Each structure stands twice: as structure tokens, then as C-alpha cells.
Amino acid sequence: MADALSKVPDVEIDPEGKFKYILVNIKVKGGTDNKVIVRGTKSAEYHNHIFEKVNPAMETLGLECSCLGGGKIEHISNDKKLRVFGESTGYGKADHAVTVEKLKSVYKDYEVTME
């Protein structure tokens, strides 16, 4: 089941714009193997809308997830910039430092900052 974790991308965010994001811990049901993922989209009016999409998708893979917090990401693809800021009213503020590290691992040639 641990390979189910490796099949889940660390980061899935919109290619452009300013949008809400959440930091999610996913783990193998009944196990200890886990990892943290970033999910963000403009289509979410509230942070919980993102979690409501992520949770069932992870459950079908035999994974459990819990939201670690949220915030916003500004993605300026032309300038290769990502800015992490803000917080979620419902989930609280995500650890932006963790989010920045996850983003840097995927967007290697980007300038990634946090506020």
C-alpha cells in the first residue's frame, strides 16, 4: 500500500492566478507511512471545497487524509513566480514553509516566496 503514496503527486495547483490552497497529510489506512501534499484551485470558493474533492480520491486509493491548514497561492507562470500567503478561516494557517518546500521540489526554476 505504501506505493499508493508514491503515485499521488506532491503538488497539484492551477497553472495561473490567485487561489486557495490546502496542505494535506495523507497516510496508508491502518499504517504509519504518510506524506504531505499541496492542492490548490481557483474553482474552490472555500478551502473545504478542495478537501471535499481530495478526500474521496484518496479514499479510493486506500489512503486517509487530514487537512493541516490552508492559505492562498499566487501563481504567475510568465514570471515563474509563486507566492504563498494568508490562511484558511476553517482549517487555520498552513505551515507555509512546508508548502514552499513542496512547491520548490516541483517548480524547480521558479522563485517561490511566502508572507
TrEMBL record:
GO terms for molecular function: protein histidine phosphatase activity. It comes from the Eukaryota. SUPFAM superfamilies: PHP14-like (SSF143724). The active site is at 47 (proton acceptor). One of its GO terms (cellular component) is cytosol. Exhibits phosphohistidine phosphatase activity. InterPro entries: Janus, Janus_sf. Substrate binds at residue 20. It comes from Triplophysa tibetana. This is 14 kDa phosphohistidine phosphatase. It catalyses: N(pros)-phospho-L-histidyl-[protein] + H2O = L-histidyl-[protein] + phosphate; N(tele)-phospho-L-histidyl-[protein] + H2O = L-histidyl-[protein] + phosphate. Its EC number is 3.9.1.3. It holds the Pfam family Ocnus. PANTHER family: 14 KDA PHOSPHOHISTIDINE PHOSPHATASE (PTHR12258:SF11), JANUS-A/JANUS-B (PTHR12258). Belongs to the janus family.
